[in-house]
Amino acid sequence: MAENLQAGILKAGRLKIVVFDDDPTGSQTVHSCPLLLRWDAASLRQGLADPSPLLFLLVNSRDLPPEQARARLTSLCRTLQPLLAEAVAAGTIDRWLVVSRGDSTLRGHFPLESAVIAAELGPFEASFLVPAFLPGGRTTVAGVHLLHGEPVHQSAFAQDRLFGYSTSFLPAWVAQKSGGVIPAEAVQRIDRSELEAAAAQKEGGAGAGFQALVGRLADLAGNPWVVVDGERPAQLAAFAAGVHQVTAVVGSNAAPDAKAGPRPRRFLFQSAASLITALADLPPQPRDAAGLAALRRRSPEGEPLAGLVLVGSHVSLADAQLAALLAEPACVGVELPVAQVARVLAGPLPDRLLPSLESAWLERLQQVLASGRTPVLFTSRGELACSSPAERRALGEALAGLMAALAARLAPQLGYLISKGGITSQTLLAVGLDLAVLRLEGQLLPGLSLLRPAGERVPQALAGLPLITFPGNLGQAPTLVESWRLMEGLGS
After folding, report:
1. Residue 97 falls inside a structural domain
2. pTM of model > 0.70
């Protein structure tokens, strides 16, 4: 098929990249696009009509047991599929790509999520595994996924009680996570030498590297898994350019449709955030960090309103970031004791006791705000031993729900809100604040998205409120302090 690439080119100006995000932090490298927390037909249709090439669906499947994740994705895909066809038929979009955005440290429901998407929205010619997240030090070299240069299976993330693994060589990881259904030898690779050759030609160098990559992509069939290396943005940009060229072609071995004729070749991507940046090829974000921080809400008299920080993540990096923030004299910690909440939940009167505890924590938070300082609401550190994954999820949901409820009570008087951790952020946005649509304004710091409520039904009390979503596994020890200082107008 490679020699026929120039035949049947579709207009590429109205591409829609639909991102199924398994927690609310995967938009951490892009800007100026809608994020949906609800997926009814009207909301999806509105999202597809948005002028941005990106549409994020905050599925939050990582926080669900496998069968619930399967059911949620299946329902979403079945609502989305006819709307994609409708948008193409109406000329709203010319073509679409699907990305299953997952964690750059390889935690999540793999290959379950991609299998559901393939079954409902396919067929696909190939599925690509691209976990590189370059701003966070996650790279893939010779098929081995690295965290700051070290194999990721040697990190604390690989010891995750729900999503752990024992290899960083991605073909072997695919085999391990699929229970051997997908053997390692069946997984193909696009290595850095191919990507560098393609990037050199795309950037004006000599040789046929880019066309070789395009030819290889064009010849894929039967939906194999393909691991893609990634060490620098130019490599992923070259890969994305090849994808765009191939998927804009109605090829000779694209399955025909009796009514619509031949369809474009389609690929599915299981990736971290960096590939999304390359696929979207957005211009620089319109506001820099200072401009984003200036979105902080103010009183009618023009005075900046106070902020609130939530820290629910329990990875060791989050512990270090929390400790650094609490060392700031202008920040005051308010702790949710996990063991106490667990005892109340297991006891006979949780519906009576939890509201009493919530009132006490709310009073403490109000006292900190009245003192002119920033309250930092956090769950006690360390992981409580649970008897099962279901018990762990239930406790996590209860803690996130408590934090979200407290934040929602305070939100009308806040100038901004920083939320650390995927479950914490999702629960805050979807449950505590009851939002349906968000607008991603940009990145306050690398990987830290600043969102604001959007859509037609935003309560006045939440209008314009900046919400900074902070992945649990991102940054260095000072990064949380830096984000707080930016929002407080103190510099980074």
Report:
1. yes
2. yes
Question: Final residue of a domain: which of 219, 249, 280?
Answer: 280
Instruction: Work out how many domains the chain is built from and give that number.
Output: 2
Q: Can the peptide bond before residue 123 be classed as cis, meaning omega within 30 degrees of 0? A: yes
DSSP codes, 186-252: G-EEE-HHHHHHHHHHHTT-SSSHHHHHHHHHHT--S--EEEE-BSSHHHHHHHHHHHHHHHTB--T
Closest alpha carbon to 241 in 207, 280, 291, 283: 280
Q: Which two tokens stand for residue 292?
A: 């984003």
Maximum Cα interatomic distance, the chain, rounded to a whole number of Å: 73
Q: How many CA atoms lie within 13 A of 143 on its CB side?
A: 16
Please give the residue range of the domain that contains residue 56.
2-280
Please check whether residues 222 and 345 belong to one and the same domain.
no
Based on the domain organization, do 391 and 244 belong to the same domain? Answer: no
Residues 273 and 393 in one domain: no
Q: Are residues 247 and 369 in the same domain?
A: no
Residue 492 lies in a domain: no
* Cβ 468 vs Cβ 483: under 8 Å: yes
Between CA 348 and CA 358, with CA 353 as vertex, the angle to 5 degrees is: 150
Contact 277, 29 (CB under 8 A): yes
SS3 annotation, 100-113: EECCCCCCCCCCHH
Please answer whether residues 309 and 376 qualify as being in contact, where contact means their C-beta atoms are separated by less than 8 angstroms: yes
103 touches 62 (CB < 8 A): yes
pLDDT in tens, the chain (492 residues): 333 333 333 334 489 999 999 987 788 889 999 999 999 999 999 999 999 999 999 998 998 899 999 999 999 999 999 999 999 999 999 899 999 999 999 999 999 999 999 999 999 999 999 999 998 899 999 999 999 999 999 999 999 888 999 999 999 999 999 999 999 999 999 999 999 999 986 554 445 899 999 999 999 999 999 999 999 999 999 999 999 999 986 543 334 444 444 556 899 999 999 999 999 988 899 999 999 999 999 999 999 999 999 998 878 889 999 999 999 999 999 999 888 888 887 788 777 788 888 899 999 999 999 999 999 999 988 766 676 777 777 788 888 899 999 999 999 999 999 999 888 998 999 999 999 999 999 999 988 999 999 987 899 999 999 999 988 878 899 999 999 999 999 975
